[in-house]
Write a structure and sequence with these properties.
translocase, about 50% helix, ATPase_P-typ_cation-transptr_N, 32 helices, binds adenosine-5'-triphosphate, about 950 residues, eleven-stranded mixed beta sheet, Calcium-transporting ATPase, cytoplasmic domain N, membrane, alpha+beta, Calcium-transporting ATPase, cytoplasmic transduction domain A
């Protein structure tokens, strides 16, 4: 007769394992989604039709002014209105979170099964079932809390900022610090941080899909509208959560947080995404097939037992259930999900914030990284190093934003005030500038872009009072900088009704608009060649060059148009800005090259500058640079041919980036592409891994990308690739480790049926024990596996390569067989020698577990040998898991209550010696096989 335990527990064991798997798999999913949808409480504020008010009335009503609010007033309002964020869902109480762990159909079934077992007075079995349910709930509770915290921290890393006028100056603050009455500056790429009534709008278009569902951007203005105008037509309003796709503007905050339109309609659904990737989906599908196959095998063995071995139908049914319990890898999906979540956390710790999870895997297949130059490969800490006027070339000392430094002509310091041409050029870049300098306790801080900040610093070094200059010649209008036209222009009017237009930008863009140049003796026709030569000298030194020019404006015109700056400008000078490469980027480029990843620089900068920096950084081919103009003249076929060999692309626009990504992808290469501007969005979306800049990137770029760099640093991309490769490796290791365990167990049960054993080597509760205990110790330790030593010295993985390769299946197959033969042999030997089924089963369970411990070390490296210090001791989680598991097994074998629960018996030292001896065989056999595979591969590759 079959063991009596087998009857009830076969069924219950199956249920328990299914429930456990479903429970574990859900912890992480819940962790992600738990607080994703904030419950919004509408703010009890009177509804004002801000869109129907004149701008002056709005300013009066919110008690603000054109210079913005003063700091004490901001603090008072912040205390009154609260931070500008949507209220988060109230966290569930710990008790509710714990109880929620039981909210699962399979757990219900298990509980019912436990109750029925108890009613039948099978107290021990009922105890085991309730124990499993409780342990599942406790682990779920702890893991869910940790996952929620980790993901909240990652979300927090992406908190948006706003540029706002405070105490008369433009500063950058966290969007949460905005209060009603704040004056906010908007520019293309910004996400509108609160509900704003626009006071100024310069060609501003806003995409309001988040609010209205309409994805075509709406042109905005400032004129008041009828009170009953529908939300989507309120052109003088900019609503929180919408995206500025073009132009600039200023708006006054009229509502924050829950009082905003988006807050009112409670539509702010945070990025809720499934914690899954293509590999996980592939494995889920594989799991379904496997389950089906197991059911077929179970049915076949049922028929076999019934017809060939003369088991009763009831006994055989239960034996088949036991087989299914053993063979289905219940823990695998959960372990894979956990591995993925740990990988995402690890990437965030290395400044790469994953926005879309499949990118984790794609990163491991990346063959080309197309990177911006400024700020990603270089430090973006700009300093003006050279200024060239018509008369002479001057260098400038000092570093960073500290405005102390001197101008020098041929190594002699000069007084800038004695050089009227220099002073005029400095005045030009001060006026045509959106940045400001602020002295703080710790040093100087720039508000605005680093390049404009550096120009301000140069002006201060030249002795200019920048604040006074901007007051004397206030700005009336501007054409904002866009990388498509590569210049910025501003219109100014003096109090004596004089008017000037200043233009600064890329030399080509400015020079073609100039007719003359400024000299000490007045203006004279432009000597284009001389200026181009000056520019080349600066660019060859790796400096980014900027030209500045001026033109008188029409005193009575208050607006500025592209037509006004088409020609007739007078060139004042050139500025050469130094922006040294990041040391970490140089090292990371080298790492990428070793890893078979080609790095390409795609920059808006001049070709000469770009090549000089590319050389300093160590890109492969730096002699040729293709410019945007050359790309335009090239057919797709020609570009496809050149794209693989050329690494430097200069003066490109975002449209070129899109073309480059497409051509590379057509060549079968997986591409990662960086971007920061609103126009980069199409290229970022198209790239296999779009990478946005976290500090200098626009919100539009972030939303279009898969990954955001918290530090804008190229090195973080290389780190993310390393982590991506590691996560993929770890996912495969989990498969490679777990499947043979199930395979071994199943073969033991199958063997027992085939040989017609009356007493099985493993009971279902024991199988349940092994599966649960090894999943929470050994398999979990693999999820923490650090990168393998050679992870960045092998070529990228081919994305078409199947996960379950023939070598993989071969390993799974023969390891299952080793586990089965070893377990079976020791069970039979002990049963034959001692006759006690309890003791023989205890030997079998411990042999199986010990096999797994040894095989875990094999699984740490897929191909590399592990019989070395690093292989055996390199992951402390593995060691911890082994110690824990041994303690569990000691309790399982010697502790009375567990002996009763699982039907085990104490073992002697001789038993253990034999078990360790037999089980260690797997370690050596697998290592031997790995060596053979490597040798064969070495022979094949010559
Ligand atoms: P990368 O793509 O590597 O970040 P980039 O930042 O130099 O390159 P763009 O921002 O498109 O690319 O700038 C292109 C050129 O336009 C610069 O080389 C510079 O000459 C000019 N430029 C950049 N910013 C401004 C600005 N605020 N005002 C005027 N001209 C600018």
């Amino acid at each position: 007769m079959l063991d009596s335990n087998f009857s009830w527990l076969s069924t219950l064991g199956l249920l328990a394992l299914l429930a456990l798997a479903a429970g574990v798999g859900r912890w992480w999913l819940r962790g992600r989604g738990g607080s994703a949808i904030p419950a919004l409480t509408p703010q009890a504020e009177e509804t004002v039709n801000w869109h129907a008010q004149e701008t002056e009335t709005v300013l009066l009503r919110v008690n603000s002014s054109e210079g913005g609010l003063k700091q004490p007033e901001v603090e008072r309002r912040l205390a009154e209105h609260g931070p500008n964020k949507l209220p988060e869902a109230k966290p569930r109480s710990p008790l509710m979170r714990f109880l929620a762990q039981f909210h699962n159909v399979l757990i219900y079934v298990l509980i019912v099964a436990g109750v029925v077992t108890a009613l039948l007075q099978h107290w021990l079995d009922a105890g085991v079932i309730f124990g499993v349910v409780l342990i599942n709930a406790i682990i779920g509770f702890v893991q869910e809390g940790k996952a929620e915290d980790a993901l909240k921290a990652i979300r927090g890393m992406l908190s948006p900022h706003a540029r706002v006028w405070r105490d008369g100056r433009l500063v950058t603050v966290e969007a949460t610090e905005l209060v009603p009455g704040d004056l906010v500056a908007l520019q293309s790429g910004d996400k509108v941080p609160a509900d704003l009534r626009l006071l100024r709008a310069k060609g501003i278009d806003i995409e309001e899909a988040a609010l209205t569902g309409e994805s075509v951007p709406v042109a905005k203005g400032t004129d008041p509208l009828n009170a009953d105008t529908a939300l989507a037509d309120r052109r003088c309003m900019a609503y929180s959560g919408t995206l500025v796709t073009h132009g600039q503007g200023t708006g006054i905050v009229v509502a924050t947080g829950a009082g905003t339109e988006i807050g009112r309609i409670s539509a702010m659904v945070a990025d809720v995404q499934q914690l899954t990737t293509p590999l996980l989906r592939q494995m889920a599908q594989f799991g379904r097939w496997l389950t089906l196959a197991i059911l077929v095998i179970a049915a076949a063995s049922f028929a076999f037992g019934l017809l060939v071995r003369d088991y009763s139908a009831a006994d055989m049914f239960l034996a088949s259930v036991g087989l299914a319990v053993a063979a289905i890898p219940e823990g695998l999906p959960a372990i894979m999900t956990i591995t993925l979540a740990i990988g995402v956390q690890r990437m965030a710790g290395r400044n790469a914030i994953i926005r879309r999870l499949p990118a984790v895997e794609t990163l491991g297949t990346v063959g080309v990284i197309c990177s911006d130059k400024t700020g990603t490969l270089t430090r973006n800490e700009m300093t003006v190093g050279t200024v060239a006027t018509q008369e002479r070339r001057l260098s400038l000392s000092g570093t960073g934003y500290d405005p102390h430094g001197v101008f020098m002509a041929e190594d002699e310091s000069i007084d800038a005030q004695d050089d009227p041409l220099l002073i005029e050029a400095l005045r030009g870049v001060t006026l045509c500038n959106d940045a400001s300098l602020e002295q703080r306790e710790g040093g100087w801080r720039v508000h605005g872009g680093p390049m404009e900040g550096a120009l301000m610093v140069a002006a201060v070094k030249g002795g200019l009072d920048t604040e006074l200059i901007t007051k004397e010649l206030p700005r009336t209008d501007l054409i904002p900088f866009e990388s498509s036209h590569k210049f910025m222009a501003t219109l100014h009017h003096s109090h004596a009704s004089e008017s000037f237009i200043f233009v600064k930008g890329a030399p080509e863009a400015v020079l073609e608009r100039c007719a003359s140049e400024r000299t000490r003796d007045g203006d004279r026709p432009l000597d284009l060649d001389a200026w181009q030569q000056r520019m080349e000298v600066m660019a060859e030194a790796g400096q980014r060059v900027l030209a500045v020019a001026v033109k008188p404006g029409e005193p009575h015109r208050g607006d500025l148009d592209f037509k006004d700056v088409e020609h007739g400008l007078t060139l004042l000078g050139l500025f050469g800005l130094m922006d040294p490469p990041r040391e970490e980027a140089i090292a990371a480029v080298r790492v990428c090259q070793q890893a078979g990843i080609r790095v390409k620089m795609i920059t808006g900068d001049h070709a000469t500058t770009a090549k000089a920096i590319a050389r300093q950084i160590g890109l492969c081919s730096t002699e040729t640079a293709l410019t945007g103009r050359e790309l335009d003249a090239m057919e797709d076929v020609e570009l496809q041919r050149r794209v693989s060999e050329v690494d430097v692309y200069a003066r490109v626009t975002p449209e070129h980036k899109l073309r480059l990504v497409q051509r590379l992808q057509e060549a079968g290469i997986v591409v990662a592409m960086t971007g920061d501007g609103v126009n980069d969005a199409p290229a970022l979306k198209r790239a296999d891994v779009g990478v946005a800049m976290g500090i200098n990137g626009t919100e539009a770029a972030k939303e279009a990308s898969e990954m955001v760099l918290a530090d804008d640093n190229f090195a973080s991309i290389a780190n993310a690739v390393e982590e991506g490769r590691t996560v993929y490796d770890n996912l495969r290791k989990a498969i490679l480790f777990i499947l043979p365990t199930n395979g071994g167990e199943a073969l033991v049960v199958l063997g027992a049926i085939l040989f017609g054993f009356q007493q099985f080597p493993l009971t279902p509760v024991q199988i349940l024990w092994v599966n649960m205990i090894t999943a929470v110790t050994l398999a979990l330790a693999l999820a923490f596996e650090p990168p393998e030593p050679g992870v960045m010295s092998r070529p990228p993985r081919d994305s078409r390569q199947p996960v379950l390769s023939p070598t993989f299946l071969w390993r799974i197959g023969y390891v299952s067989l080793i586990l089965m033969v070893g377990t079976f042999s020791l069970f039979l030997l002990d049963h034959w020698l001692n006759g006690s089924i309890e003791q023989a089963r205890t030997v079998a369970v411990n042999t199986l577990v010990m096999f797994e411990i040894f095989y875990l070390f094999n699984s740490r490296y897929m191909e590399a040998p592990v019989l070395n210090l690093r292989g055996l001791f390199g992951n402390r989680y593995v060691l911890l898991a082994v110690v824990l598991l041994i303690l569990f097994q000691i309790a399982f074998t010697y502790w009375g209550p567990l002996q009763m629960l699982f039907g085990t018996a104490a073992l002697g030292a001789g038993h253990w010696l034999l078990i360790v001896l037999v089980a260690s065989s797997v370690l050596f056999i697998v290592e031997h096989e790995k060596r053979r595979v490597l040798q064969r591969r070495a022979l094949e590759s010559g």
